[in-house]
Hints:
- It is a single chain.
- This protein has 343 residues and is an alpha/beta fold.
- It folds into 2 domains: 8-260, Ribonuclease Z/Hydroxyacylglutathione hydrolase-like (Metallo-beta-lactamase, Chain A, 4-Layer Sandwich), CATH 3.60.15; 262-340, Arc Repressor Mutant, subunit A, CATH 1.10.10.580.
- The chain has helices at residues 56-68, 86-89, 92-99, 107-118, 123-134, 139-143, 222-234, 252-276, 284-290, 302-321; strands spanning 14-17, 20-26, 34-40, 47-49, 78-80, 102-106, 158-160, 172-177, 186-191, 195-199, 240-243, 249-250, 282-283, 325-328, 337-340.
- The chain starts with 13 loop residues before the first strand and ends with a strand.
- The mean pLDDT is 93.
- Residues 34-245 form the Metallo-beta-lactamase domain.
Amino acid sequence: MRTRRRPFSAQRTTDMGGGVWSVPVPIPGNPLGYxxxxxxxxxxxxxLVDAGWNHEDAWTALRDGLAAAGVDVRExxxxxxxxxxxxHAGLAGRVREESGAWxxxxxxxxxxxxxxxxxPDGSHGDFQAEMMRRAGAEAxxxxxxxxxxxxxxxxxxxxxxxxxxVDLPGRALRVVWTPGHTPGHVCLHxxxxxRLFTGDHILPGITPHIGLYPYxxxxxxxxxxxxxxxxxxxxxxxxxxxxxxxxxFAGIAARAAEIRAHHEDKLLRLRELxxxxxxxxxxxxxxxxxxxxxxxxxxxxxxxxGMAAGEAAxxxxxxxxxxxxxxxxxxxxxxxxxxxxxx
Length: 343
């Protein structure tokens, strides 16, 4: 039976057994509430799985939460980041400053961190606005400029690949590459303990955001990658999932099947929507406006609409790879438009 997500104020550092501790770290101003950072003990010092958001309140929670587990943050050996998002990688750099710890991340996300850190100040808003215009947005493209981007995460010292063992003396913590939520998202299999740190790949009560950025890319299929990654972790047969949000749970294969069914249903409904609009091609923005979200489109702010458009683009890209929709030719600079291939 699933339990309700508890607020951060109700969270505590928890001994998960077997030399693994769960430390809740708040995400200020975010409905997710907190990230679960895990400390894994070893004879060579503890290794953290993720680190939390880069904020003073989050740092205090991490430091004090580790202390409650008997870990001095200055003793941390390393931080392995499941993916580059700020609620996971944000404090990794500060942990490194305090302890001299290494930071490890999959090579695909490490490349994104390099790209983000190389962007001039203020250019991120311009990039977002241009991307939204190419999707067919109008007023929202200018509105998104006023939202500040979080500081980029620290560049990792070590880059991981699928199947690598994390530097954790006396224990086997193996990288399982699970692209989709980000290109370099990884789960971490604690072999011999029948546990899987799932990051955002599989969560017990919600599904991760799967978006395509820029929206009109044709060289990748993040939703297709995500669905394939769900099968990979389901096949591990691991008894316990230790996710980055919500709560630990058993039955990874069953939860993976639920998430896959969710996206297959969403793809089916999108095919139906595109068939209903078969007389005219639609921009990505027009498709997003017609899809179902957790709130009406009119109530979403510009950033939320941008994320919805990213998810719509990812689902359109999967349908395109399946031959169910195609792009209509247009003039240079025009927003990309899709139309069904069904007749």
